[in-house]
Amino acid sequence: MSWSETFQRCFINEDRYKLLLSGIGVTIKVSLLAIVIGIAIGFLIALCNLSKKKPLKVIGKVYTDVIRGTPSVTQLMIIYFVIFATINWSKWIIAAIAFGINSGAYVSEIIRAGILSIDRGQTEAGRSLGLNAKQTMLYIVVPQAVKNIFPAMGNEFITLIKETAIVGYVGLMDIQKAGDFIKSATYEAFMPLVGTAIIYFVMIKLLTIALGKYEAHLRKSEVR
Amino acid sequence: MIKVNNLHKSFNDLEVLSGITEEIDEGEVVVVIGPSGSGKSTFLRCLNLLETPDDGEVFIDGEQINLPGVDVDRLRQKMGMVFQHFNLFPHLTVLENITLAPVKLNKMTPEQANDKAMKLLERVGLTEKANDYPASLSGGQKQRIAIARALAMEPEILLFDEPTSALDPEMVGEVLDVMKKLAKDGMTMVVVTHEMGFAREVGTRLLFIDEGKVLEKGTPDEVLNHPREERTIAFLSKVLI
Question: How far apart are alpha carbons A189 and A180 in whole angstroms?
Answer without folding.
Answer: 8
